[in-house]
Amino acid sequence: MSGTLTGTRHTWRMAGALPDGEPVPADGSLPDEATRDVGANGFAVYVHVPFCASRCGYCDFNTYTASELGGGASRDEYAATVLRELDLAAKVVQPRRVDTVFVGGGTPTLLSPSDLGRILEGIDRTWGLAADAEVTTEANPESVDLASLKQLRAAGFTRISLGMQSSASHVLRVLDRKHTAGRAPEAALEAREAGFEHVNLDLIYGTPGETADDFARSLQTVVDAGVDHVSAYALIVEDGTRMAVRMRRGELPYPSDDVAADRYLAAEQALTAAGFGWYEVSNWAREGGECRHNLLYWTGADWWGLGPGAHSHVGGVRWWNVKHPSAYAKRLADGVSPGHGRELLSAEDQHVEDVMLRVRLREGIALDRVEGAAAAQALADGLLDPAAFSAGRLVLTLRGRLLADAVIRDVLP
């Protein structure tokens, strides 16, 4: 069995080219069977903010700098545009409640706290936020300060995810990150001071030029910052990015699978020693700090994605919006759904996706959901936890987490 460690990515914000799919009705309506029990397993809202001050060399998310936007798309008008999509969504689905909201990007905090608050108020007014709703925004460390963080907290945000990536200045330069090495932990401490209940720091490991000591210091930095959640992803070089071009030219070496595995083991050791526990292959949290929004994605809940390029999933129907902010705004101004295309997932499609996501979780998946002989072989190879296996569940060992993609491929029926 072979395979390499990779991390789940935020696919709901639609990186890369859009698939075609079947046409989305002009009013965004869904088949009756898809809307019969919306949110029975939880309902989430994702809001995509596509603006960035600059483009990081490794990023292929659907984001735009000011020079890339062109006419017809305004940051100042963006909240109003998203609220128009929300008005359309309210005519399509009426979930029991909204359990989680996640505002991602891009850099959401390039919008003012008042605009982000308007969007959150619109979601609450339209569908109703659960009393204990988790409300997250992403932020670049240099895009917030104590004052803006207090405003975000007052607007109803309960969780913030800061893009740290590394504490080494030379690694940040390779990644084209603009913040200083010390700004991310400072912002995390400010978020705590502002009253945020949950704070996450993102790390990327395996960047060309990063040493084992660099990554060890990054891990110590996140621990010292007092956060309750850490996401750590191996660097993935996506086609079309500036980093991919630099590597093809020979300016940078390609990432090493062996180095990525070593970094992952270092993260597991350091974070476990500091009181964090893994709950998804690329995510660790202190008790109670798990990202509930991501868990809803990973366990098959329904969600509506607002914004250009955002994905949605309701009742076995998945659809995606047009990518460019100008096209998105024009469709909504014309009273038309911004949906670019959609697909109706078969029972087999849904099963495959369920296995792909649940195998990565600490709770794993029931053995009767996977191919038995392959699971038994993975157990013999030391990739699965024997006690969990005896109890009828497939749960990855540490070695299994290093080879998660290969395990998933092999146990799919």
From TrEMBL:
Cell location: Cytoplasm
Cellular component, GO, one term: cytoplasm
Keywords: 4Fe-4S, Chaperone, Cytoplasm, Heme, Iron, Iron-sulfur, Metal-binding, S-adenosyl-L-methionine
Cross-referenced CDD domains: Radical_SAM
InterPro entries in the cross-refs: Aldolase_TIM, Coproporphyrinogen-III_oxidase, Elp3/MiaA/NifB-like_rSAM, HemW-like, rSAM, rSAM_sf
Domain of life: Bacteria
Any Gene Ontology biological process: porphyrin-containing compound biosynthetic process
Coiled coil (residue ranges): none
Any Pfam family the entry gives: Radical_SAM
GO molecular function, one term: 4 iron, 4 sulfur cluster binding
Keyword GTP-binding attached: no
Domain Radical SAM core residue range list: 37-274
Region (Disordered) residue spans: 1-33
NCBIfam families according to UniProt: hemN_rel (TIGR00539)
Function as written in the Swiss-Prot or TrEMBL entry: Probably acts as a heme chaperone, transferring heme to an unknown acceptor. Binds one molecule of heme per monomer, possibly covalently. Binds 1 [4Fe-4S] cluster. The cluster is coordinated with 3 cysteines and an exchangeable S-adenosyl-L-methionine.
Family: Belongs to the anaerobic coproporphyrinogen-III oxidase family. HemW subfamily.
Protein known as: Heme chaperone HemW
Native organism: Actinoplanes awajinensis subsp. mycoplanecinus
